[in-house]
Design brief:
Oligomer: single chain
Structural class: mainly alpha
Number of strands: 0
Radius of gyration: 15 Å
Order of helices and strands: HHH
Strand content: under 5%
Shape: flat
Number of domains: 1
Number of helices: 3
Amino acid sequence: MNQELPPVSFQSIILMFSAAVLQYLGITPNPLTNKTEKNLSMAKQTIDTLEVLKAKTKGNLDAEEEKLLDSLLYELRMHYLKTTEPEKK
């Protein structure tokens, strides 16, 4: 079954990494297993990868791309912190 895929763009790359972080944090299920599993080291590694992309593309993104990257990085960091902070009793 051949599925028509959307064209590759900077936004699609950023969204792909963001979806991976959400899976690694156990927020969304793995689409292959339909199970939620946490892998915090991979979540951090993927967020760090997005940070590298941000640094390496500085000055080369249009305003929309930059806004998307900044807002996703903020949201992913907040999810990561919420997932890794100790539970308050």
